[in-house]
Design goal:
The protein is α/β, with parallel strands linked by helices. The chain is built from 14 helices and nine strands. The longest helix has 23 residues, at 42-64.
Length: 296
């Protein structure tokens, strides 16, 4: 993960090195060499994904930053969005997401939860199924509203199971359990929220150079104080990705180009289902970055 970027682009290598230094762990070595079990641990996976995104942006920033209307990131990607907007330095953001991962892991251990992806069912139907499945001591919520027909539910295992069955009865094509260590973006993450807020308040956060669309509200955030509060709220609130992308498209205007920065192309696929006419390019590998730089 990211090794080809580090080998071919000095700016990317510098980002990986700076993050290794502040975390006091060889994160880049784990990213490049594994083992996979160590890389996928929550406290490593989150800063690793951020490091990859920040490294790509360090290479392409000169080609895009003068024309950016807005930025957005899905879940922990929202921290990467603030890096692109110069509200956070990459090492500072890496420290925050590592702390975020530790707190989420602990909350998941204290009250075990789970998540499941619901495919082929409108969000309103999923939300109704979650409400139907929730009881006083056991709840399920719509946690990631990824596309008009793709919603991830989160909560107590028994409630998520009931909600999944209710979704199937309402016409869902599939309900896929996810391998996660907790009920992310749900009230079960509440024990982590206050501690994350403290870390955010201590972080060197600046007003973003351009608006960042927040997961929790789908609003365009323009000041550091609001950014801190909404990143904290994000732990227990739904990722309103459909609305985020619709708002980003409005801010970008007709003919705007979306650039997905980081590993994979999942968000580009979701975007096409939310804004079908969107012009989008994914930059994750060194080859993709090279092609983009040559064409820009």
């Amino acid at each position: 993960m990211g090794k080809d970027l580090a080998e071919r682009f000095p700016a990317a290598r510098a980002v990986f090195d700076s993050i290794d230094d502040v975390l006091d762990v060889p994160l880049s070595r784990v990213m490049f060499e594994g083992p996979e079990a160590e890389l996928t641990a929550t406290q490593n996976a989150q800063p690793a994904i951020l490091a990859h995104s920040a490294a790509v942006f360090a290479v392409v920033s000169g080609k895009v930053e003068d024309n950016v209307a807005t930025a957005a990131g899905h879940s922990l990607g929202e921290y990467s969005a603030y890096v692109t907007a110069a509200a956070l330095d990459a090492p500072e953001a890496a420290k925050l997401v590592r702390r975020r991962g530790e707190l989420m892991q602990k909350a998941g251990e204290e009250r075990p939860g789970t998540m499941a992806a619901v495919l082929g069912l409108a969000t309103k139907e999923v939300e109704a199924a979650c409400q139907e499945a929730s009881q006083q001591a056991s709840l399920a919520v719509a946690a990631n509203i990824n596309a008009p027909d793709q919603t991830v539910i989160s909560g107590d295992p028994d409630a998520v199971a009931r909600a999944g069955e209710a979704c199937k009865k309402r016409g869902a094509k599939r309900v896929i359990p996810l391998k996660v260590s907790g009920a992310f973006h749900s009230p079960l993450m509440a024990p982590a929220k206050n501690q994350l807020q403290l870390a955010l308040e201590r972080a060197a956060f600046r007003d973003p150079l351009f608006p960042v669309v927040a997961n929790a509200t789908a609003e365009a955030v323009k000041d550091a104080g609001r950014a801190r509060r909404l990143l904290s709220d994000q732990l227990t609130a739904a990722v309103r990705w459909v609305e985020c992308m619709q708002h980003a498209a409005q801010l970008g205007g007709a003919g705007a180009r979306f650039v997905e920065i980081g590993p994979g192309a999942v968000l580009a696929g979701l975007l096409k289902r939310i804004v079908p006419e969107a012009n989008v390019v994914s930059l994750g590998t060194a080859d993709e970055v090279t092609k983009f730089m040559e064409a820009a």
